[in-house]
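In this supplementary section we document a worked example of the pipeline. Step one takes a protein sequence of length 300 as its only input; no multiple sequence alignment statistics are reported here. Step two produces a three-dimensional model, which step three serialises into structure tokens for compact storage. The input and output of this example are shown verbatim.
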Amino acid sequence: MLPFRAMFSTDVRAGFRETSATPGPLRLLRDAFDEVISRRRLIRYLVGADMKKRGSDTVLGNLWWVLDPILQMGVYLILVMVIRGGRATPDFPLFIFAALLPWKWYAAVINDATNAVVRKDRLIRQIAFPKIVLPVSAATAGVVGFLWGLLPLLGLLLFYPDRWSPLILLFPVIAVVQYVFSIASAIIVSAANVFFRDLGNVVGHVLRLWWFLSPGLYSVAQLEGTGLLRQQPLLQAFVTLNPFVVLFESYRAVAYGRPDGPPFVPDVLPLLALLAASLILLVLGTIFFKRLEPNFAKVL
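The serialised model returned by step three reads:
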């Protein structure tokens, strides 16, 4: 295995050296792709180091990947049962967990990616290496937490045998779409936070508001039944454009189904549309990151 500093060194990557000419968007994309592919070992190292640090920071270690979503599900379950006077959605624990698990994955990725570049300020000033590996590794590390979270999801299904279906195997397929969206978001916020340090404080509030405005504690059908979407055009627009409407409804389709029915195959067209939009966001975010990257060391 290469020494730690050797993994960061870019002496063998002539294409990474700065040139006097400003590269175009296609060149930036190609450079970013080459940097990620050539630095796979470094990304694996960063992901492993992050997992090891999280596991050693607490007594229960990586077990918190399993316990945390269960505890949060319990909080929301009590909250909703109190508000609704006990009249919750049938099999509500499974209903909410199917949305809570992917949301915690995305929130963890964004929180980690926000400081992915800033945390490595001393390293960036000392060693020349492709900084895009930092948000990529942060987004990839979140996959590990998501995989751990699948264990309690499968455990919950044991309590609801009528909800069990081979369609649960589509859960990771839907996660691929979310991963593309997550890595695009991670690249953007990691670069922006270098120049706008208040972004780290804003992100937490935005994520909390985003969760409650997304159909995590309720379904789109329940929201439509209240008539709010007809009365509030802005809310209607947000629901239409919110990627987690598509993701939550898709996850629930394969893990939960309908309140009065078994799991079913989710609508493919919204997922494909979200995947296409996420790929476009990934392209734009990568160009944005690569444009700002030469100034990271100056600001940090």
